[in-house]
Amino acid sequence: MDKTTRFNDEVMRHLDAAYNLARWLAHDAHEAEDVVQEAVLRAFKFFDGFRGSDAKVWLLAIVRNTFYTQRASASAHGLTDEFDESVHGGIDDAALPEAVVARAADAECLLAAMQRLPPEFREVLILRELEECSYKEIAAITKVNIGTVMSRLARARDRLHRDLTDTTKEARNHAL
Amino acid sequence: MLCKEAQGLVHAWLDDELDPARSLEMARHLDGCTACDQDLQRHAALKQALKSTLPYHAAPAALRTRLAAQLPREAQQRARRIAWNWAATSAALAAMLVIAIGVAGLLASRMQVLRADRLVADAVSSHVRSLIADHLIDVRSTDQHTVKPWFDGKLDFSPEVRDLGAQQFELVGGRLDVFDGARVAALVYRRRLHVVSLFEWPAAPSTNSGLIEDVRDGYFMLRWTDAGMHYAAVSNLNRDELNVFAHAFRNAAPARPAGED
After folding, report:
1. Tens digits of per-residue pLDDT, B228-248?
2. Do A100 and A168 contact (CB within 8 A), yes or no?
3. What is the distance between the alpha carbons of residues A98 and B188, in angstroms, rounded to a whole number?
4. Is B107 on the interface with A (CB under 8 A)?
5. First-to-last CA distance in chain A?
6. pLDDT tens digits, residue range B25-71?
7. Do the Cβ atoms of B50 and A129 come within 8 Å?
8. Minimum-distance CB partner of B114 among A15, A51, A134
9. Do the Cβ atoms of B49 and A104 come within 8 Å?
10. Distance to chain A for B246, nearest Cα, Å
11. What ipTM goes with this model?
């Protein structure tokens, strides 16, 4: 079997997962396509050296790496907008559970809240909830240990919850 | 289980990443604790909302087509180059065969390196994970004659359990673990506040090896093989103390059935 056929069988079948991750990390569809295109070509180039058993984890790690490399070079040119902790920080435990849940089910609010998360939080949520990766797989993709995966997930969910609580309150204040 | 512990495990519980023993403890705690249960419900609702609301972005057809067009071209170019070189290549075939044998040898040793790397990663992450989830021990005992029989029926081999009390390594218990799909025994020893996980699994009969040292994520690991058993010791002890541990274990008397001593 030639290399392209093997590559199609083992790697290209994870193209949806690759694009999904890139699309959630990137600003727009255009950037996501750029990232996936470069990642796939790099994966093909290094495919001879791939000896692992999990091509999905391998490909997603390359996608992620490609994204951050592109971002880093873009940010060297002053093109990124950094996450502002001071705007979105601040713990408020006066949670309004039902309202928050209703708000989370509102796709628009949830999407906006997701976009406000820093990428390292967004990516663990996407890998866990949409790609249904195990902690071990997420650890392999994001190159951190399982403990860090655990704490990042916890912090990401807390932050998202807090963000939805805040916007719920704002909406309420507007309504009054 | 205390609320503080439960709060630390709530995400692992939601994600089904707790081992059965911890899951059971957690279930019991949630049954009796309204505050933690509410916390869980809150996280579960958000998780559910994420799963059902977030769109999955499938790769656009145009991207797929574009990539498909780019990949085979690389392969074809390679094929053309190979065809063009065929005449010259045939003369060199014999030489290549000789090289290929050498490369195969290299590859085999490289594969071994990769396997060892996977092993180190598995052992360290198991050790770390057991500390995070506070799941060090399935059988809690300082008595080798309690720990060893506990493994009966849970493993298809009988692990070596040795008393190292004289060397200030206190046996605190054992647990089951899985490396690369195979069950391994994990013994837990303690020296001061440091925990040593010692993993054991069968090797080819009567094989032996020297100590092999690895470091990963700040944890030292020593591997060796004795009398047909692989051992891997992982700890945050310093290198010298872990060496003392390995030597103490290798030199200690194997456990004999209780009553023979």
Report:
1. 889 999 988 888 889 999 999
2. yes
3. 45
4. no
5. 68
6. 888 899 889 999 988 888 888 888 888 888 889 999 999 988 888 87
7. yes
8. A51
9. yes
10. 26
11. 0.81
